[in-house]
Input
Amino acid sequence: QVHLVESGGGLVQAGGSLRLSCAASGNIFSINAMAWYRQAPGKQRELVAATTSGGTTNYADSVKGRFTISRDNAKNTVYLQMNSLKPEDTAVYYCNAEISVRYSVNYNVYWGRGTQVTVSS
Output
């Protein structure tokens, strides 16, 4: 069993900052890519930021220069530092990771349950 648990969401005023965390736990052998997605009401889930095990990152155009993704491989944790938040950043933020469990060579994709981020104007 593998679990991803997000934390750090909440209510913040426009221009403020939040830091999301996502910790992976369970029978983990290796983690490849880790990412943050978000889904606003009535919209499709979209990629916000992703990072490979080697540290390469990519971002949605809408968050470039404001959000930073990072990871601590020793803790199996990925972070999303969100600065200069805007009301349009309001969404449920989900963690995603490609994980291989012990005694397996295959990677499967796992999702967290999400954390709500609300930005007031």
